[in-house]
Amino acid sequence: MKVFQKTKMLTDAHLHYCPGCTHGIVHRLVAESIEELGLQDKCIGVAPVGCAVFAYDYFNCDMQEAAHGRAPAVATGIKRCLPDRTVFVYQGDGDLASIGMAETVHAAARGENITIIFINNSIYGMTGGQMAPTTLIGQKATTCQNGRDPAVNGYPIRVCELLATLDAPYYIERVSTHDVKHVMAAKKAIKKALRFQSEGRGYTFVEVLVSCPTNWHMRPAEALQFMGKECVKTFPLGVYRDKSEGEAEV
Amino acid sequence: MSKILLHGTEAICEGAMRNGCRAFFGYPITPQNEVPEYMSVQMPKIGGVFVQAESEVAAINMVYGAAGAGIRAMTSSSSPGVSLKQEGISYIACARIPCVIVNIMRAGPGLGGILPAQGDYFQATKGGGHGDYHLIVLAPSTAQEACDFTYRAFDLSDKYRVPAMILADGMIGQIMEPVELPPMRDLKDIPEKQWATSGHYGKERRILNSLIIKPEELEPHVNELQRTYDEIYANERKAECYKTEDAEIVLTAYGTIARICKSVVDELRMQGVKAGCIRPITLYPFPDDAYAKCAAGAAKAFLSVELSLGQMVEDVKLAVNGKKPVYFYGRTGGNVPEEAEIIEAAKNALKKAEAVQ
Question: Which of A43, A54, A67 is nearest residue B61 as measured by Cβ atoms?
């Protein structure tokens, strides 16, 4: 008989995420992938500032908490010194694509052999719903209360597409968590990225679209529908770089 | 052992590498470019890591990661760049990650100028970034000390889990002097870091963090930091006292200016003025005991001489504690005072002190 168990890569701490937020799902996908690949012991995670700031309480491995936006630099320091360890970074969109854009782009350009899990919910969640670099055109936030107006607020940044202009990245994919099918695909992408890192192949980046019912002012189910209908228009899902293409799937 | 001729910045690098530094992260800024240049060549030769970061901000955060993983790590910059590092330094101080930060000071504020200055004294000794914290701050005045103090900074930083700073003016960075190099330390001699996040391998996992959101937990943490600073104060204050025993006018200066002040002391003594000089070696903890001793003795006045408009003088006043008058002479903008200027300032200080007595 097979009994379902929670992955050992997650602690028993209660997640602080809001009801209906899919951060928790992504935590589990990352944790399961690390455990399934047998990387738990030699894994070092870097937590961001933002909704996932307490990630160091949830991932059951050595963790460093980085300053806002600096996680890729912190991960660079760890990985360069300990190249045989698995180093993953978990960052939200304000952290990664706004204050930390320089660290994001340069870690990618250097081809650091790390894995970045990028959570895109198109809003600043932890601070209460301000406009993010990924807020959709017309989407309301507390700092653009009539909806994002390109004339005033500019346009959302597509990070996968931006990083795919660089030569070094090995693997870049955008996935979503708006339904079970897409969650399964997200797991596949995350596991692939971590495996590539463990094989020393280079920089891997997985952007995961996540819902924020609280700050989008939607019910959880509505928020998932909004992601599947609207978010994916601005942020098309798919593989933006895969240097392993042509190899047989593992 | 024989001496070799070394640039001040190279002496810093040698001191670091010879005491186990195996990771360097830097970004170009004058007048310290020779540090990253030298490290980019030397680090790979000893199995170390060199990364030219995209910014000073990234460099200090790479130090956070590397030093947090248990490796002795260093970054270097000059004044405007060190301002950029302050965010990272504050996080490092709170997470108690030992490391060494080098500041080869240039003239400020703002982009300022590239010539020597000591305008970052407040920033270095009073915390620099946000929150209640301090660094251990060492001030070399020769290339030999640049090497030796950097070597020592790694041991002090590890011992107390407090980041250490080498605070040198641009002159010390750019000087060339003979240096006797310490032997290369065996990495096995460096005590293992029981707190490092280097992969837990079945042991209890470790977290390095500066977010302590509960007030009932943050206060004890900051109090514990303060207890460590008190311990550092008790154990590590250090100054060179040059002819201070019977000195009536006590000059005080660190770095390049201390060298000039020692010549001034000799010249004043030739003229029959009993002069001496206190040269702080640790700027934090400040060696207040050396001043208290002079203030209780023959000293009639103190004169703080700085490449700033009066920063260290505040600590001198606290150390002298009102017992004797404390005066100030300083130049800024990258200008270094000549002996004659300081001699005149010293004589004036003594005259003023005698008038009020």
Answer: A67
Instruction: Identify the band that residue A249 occupies on the pLDDT scale cut at 50, 70 and 90.
Output: low
pLDDT given for residue B1 in this prediction: 67
ipTM of this predicted structure: 0.96
Q: What are phi and psi of B351, to 5 degrees?
A: -60, -45
Return d(Cα B200, Cα A38) in angstroms, integer. Answer: 13
Query: A81 vs B69: CB contact, 8 Å cut-off?
Result: yes
Name which CATH class applies to B240-356: alpha beta
Cβ-based burial of B166 (10 A; exposed 0-12, middle 13-18, buried ≥19): buried
CB atoms within 10 A of CB A168: 15
Task: Report the distance separating Cα A63 and Cα A57, nearest Å.
Answer: 9
| Residue A245, C-beta contacts closer than 8 angstroms, at least 6 positions apart | none
Average pLDDT over residues A82-106: 98
Give the pair of three-digit tokens for residue B3. Answer: 């001496």
CA distance A110 to chain B (A): 10
Q: Which residues of A touch B23 (CB under 8 A)?
A: 77, 80-81
Q: Is B45 on the interface with A (CB under 8 A)?
A: no
Best B89, B200, B201, B221 residue to mutate vs chain A (most A CBs within 10 Å): B200
Tell the CATH superfamily of the A23-242 domain: Thiamin diphosphate (ThDP)-binding fold, Pyr/PP domains (3.40.50.970)
- Note whether A62 contacts B198, CB cutoff 8 Å: yes
A16 touches chain B (CB under 8 A): no
The answer to whether B205 contacts A62, with C-beta atoms less than 8 Å apart, is: yes
- The Cβ of residue A176 has, within 10 Å, a number of other Cβ atoms equal to 24
- Beta strand pairing call for A171-176 and B49-52: unpaired
Task: Judge whether residue A248 has pLDDT over 80.
Answer: no
**DSSP bridge pairs for A115:** A88, A204
CB-based contact A103 B87, cutoff 8 Å: no
Answer whether B197 touches A (CB < 8 Å). Answer: yes
CA A202 to chain centroid, in Å, comes to 17
C-alpha separations of A140 from A20, A92, A132, A137, A147 in Å: 19, 18, 11, 9, 4
CA atoms of B41 and A101, how far apart (whole Å): 29
Which residues is B208 bridged to in the sheet? Answer: A64
A 61-100 residues with CB < 8 A to B: 61-67, 70, 73-82, 85
Interface contact flag, A65 B64, Cβ < 8 Å: no
CB spacing of A80 vs B66 below 8 angstroms: yes
Domain B4-236 part of CATH 3.40.50.970: yes
Q: Would you kindly state where each structural domain of chain B is located, as residue ranges?
A: 4-236, 240-356
Query: What confidence tier does B256 reach under pLDDT thresholds 50, 70, 90?
Result: very high
